[in-house]
Structure formats: structure tokens, C-alpha cells
Specification:
mainly alpha, about 70% helix, 8 helices
Length: about 140
């Protein structure tokens, strides 16, 4: 990205996408990821990102204050760096709500699913697929 005149120029030329606000969001996310990864060797940077992904909590996205970067993108990054988690959606919220007996937020649904999956040693990504398939078939 730094070899382009701006984040918008990068998004247009490298990604063939025209959206100045998303370019700004991407620039902010990349800058934040650089602070998490550190300045060390590639393997050390990757280890730092993996550690962050595993230790982060779903609600942590709020601490970043990056416009246009909400829980979905935050969770997707965690997944990319190895966290046993998933992205929130209507299917996940309905699934969790059906078990706890009341509506839950994205963050609460994710936290409950992460804890439950860890207790029964289930890969949350696999549970997400099962929940989505069952919900989509109804």
C-alpha cells in the first residue's frame, strides 16, 4: 500500500475497487495490524498476530475506533490468524438465542459459542458451518 499515492489509489489500482471510505478503513486496519505484529522477523510478527487473534475478545473491536471496521471484519481477521472463532450473523444469533431463551447481541452470541466450543472441544468454525446449514435449510 505504501508504494501508492494514497489508500484510495491502492484500492482502485490494486483491488479494482472504488470506495474512498473503505480505502480509509483498510489503511487504518493495516496500520493497527502493524502495531500488533511489531517490527521483528516475519516469523515473530506472525506469532504476534496469532497470539493477538487467540487472546482477543469479540468486543475488542470497539477499542479500535476504526470507522467502517465492525465486529464482522474483526472476527474475520481473528479467524485468518488462527483463532477458534467465527463471524456473527443472524443464524449464529438465532442459534444461541434458542438455547439461552432470549435474544443476544453479536458479541454475547460469539462469547457464549467460544466458551461452549472450548468446553466440548469443538472447532467453532465447524459448529458455525453446521449452524448455518441447518438454519439455511429451514
Amino acid at each position: 500500500m505504501t508504494t501508492y499515492a494514497s489508500a484510495t489509489d491502492f484500492v482502485v489500482k490494486a483491488l479494482n475497487y472504488r470506495d474512498g471510505e473503505r480505502a480509509s478503513t483498510l489503511k487504518s486496519v493495516v496500520a493497527w495490524l502493524l502495531t500488533v505484529s511489531g517490527d521483528g522477523h516475519y516469523d515473530d510478527q506472525l506469532t504476534n498476530l496469532e497470539r493477538w487473534a487467540i487472546q482477543a475478545e469479540p468486543a475488542d473491536y470497539k477499542k479500535l475506533h476504526i470507522r467502517g471496521f465492525a465486529i464482522g471484519g474483526f472476527q474475520y481477521l481473528r479467524m485468518l490468524f488462527g483463532a477458534n472463532t467465527t463471524k456473527p450473523d443472524i443464524h449464529i444469533r438465532r442459534y444461541v438465542s434458542s438455547y439461552v431463551g432470549h435474544p443476544v447481541s453479536d458479541v454475547k452470541a460469539l462469547k457464549l459459542l467460544e466458551c461452549a466450543a472450548a468446553k466440548v472441544e469443538v472447532v467453532l468454525r465447524d459448529l458455525d458451518t453446521t449452524v448455518w446449514e441447518r438454519s439455511a435449510r429451514k
